[in-house]
Amino acid sequence: MEELKRASIDSPALTAELLLGFVLGWDRVRLLSHAEQELDDASWYCLRRLIHRRANGEPLQYLTGEQEFFGLAFKVTPAVLIPRPETEILVEKAIDLIRNHSNSNARFVDIGTGSGCIAVSVAHHNPSLVGWAVDCSAIALKIGQENAKRHGVGNRIGFVQSNLLESFAQKPCLDFVFCNPPYVALDEYDTLPTEVKNHEPHEALFGGADGLDVYHRLVPEAAVRMVAGGYLLLEVGMGQASQVGQLIEKEGLSLQPVLSDLQGIPRCVIGQKISREK
């Protein structure tokens, strides 16, 4: 634990405890109730290596291979972004919209699915929902599939390797489109925590010079493919909500109230496709 303290790792005692539990395959309750348990040489060696790697900046989630999101445990590797609490805002809103949607056969697509945390969480809380999870990375799709199978929704989510929505017909066919795109501006690289910029996949972090590259491409693609009454839910970075909202309105979608995270940062921008029929 001293090595973690010297490296200024947040919550060093808890970090050491979590790594010990991972090495032993024990949950926290068992760990605390068997605090006197002595480790064999192999376990000590493994624990010391993990503590050293954490002290050198590797994210805890990549060391243990798991991150909790929306009450579910997701497998994560350096091939996918680590799920973050602010993304739960999008998921919570999506679940609410789906449950109140008039179409009981609604179809969704999650763009840039990564670990599958959005698609899997939404499907898990809507037992009849069917949809697709899209990513340009075959490795990420494999991880997403494993998480879908882990949580019993693998038979309701199709995993598709695609560049955004290119694999979907250019006609109304989707009720919900979700996306947590790469939205960090390139000139913000130096402001990121070392463990983020040195270990998480850059293709899932950076969205061009201003962070808006994916939004410029995705919003028009989604507008064409959404059915009347359908919703587009996008996570955005700090200061991006207004610009993304303008893109949504430019495509003729109705801009809905923006949702903020617990810090008050506008975090989820929503557009609805309104029927033009009279």
Written overview of the protein:
This protein has 278 residues and is of the alpha/beta class. Strands 3, 4, 5, 6, 7, 8, 9 and 10 form an eight-stranded mixed β-sheet that branches. The protein has a two-stranded antiparallel ribbon with strand order 1-2. The protein contains eleven helices and ten strands. It starts with a helix and ends in a 6-residue tail after the last strand. Helix 2 crosses helix 4 (41-55).
Overall pLDDT metric: 92
If you compute it from the alpha carbons, what radius of gyration comes out, rounded to the nearest whole angstrom?
20 Å
- How many distinct helices? 11
Number of strands: 10
Sheet of most strands: 8 strands, mixed
N- and C-termini, Cα separation: 67 Å
| Morphology call | globular
Instruction: Label the structural class.
Output: alpha/beta
Helix content: 25-40%
Looking at this protein, list some descriptive labels:
278 residues; eight-stranded mixed sheet; 11 helices; globular
Can you give me a brief rundown of this structure?
With 278 residues, this protein is α/β, with parallel strands linked by helices. Helix content is 38%, strand content 18%. It contains eleven helices and ten strands.
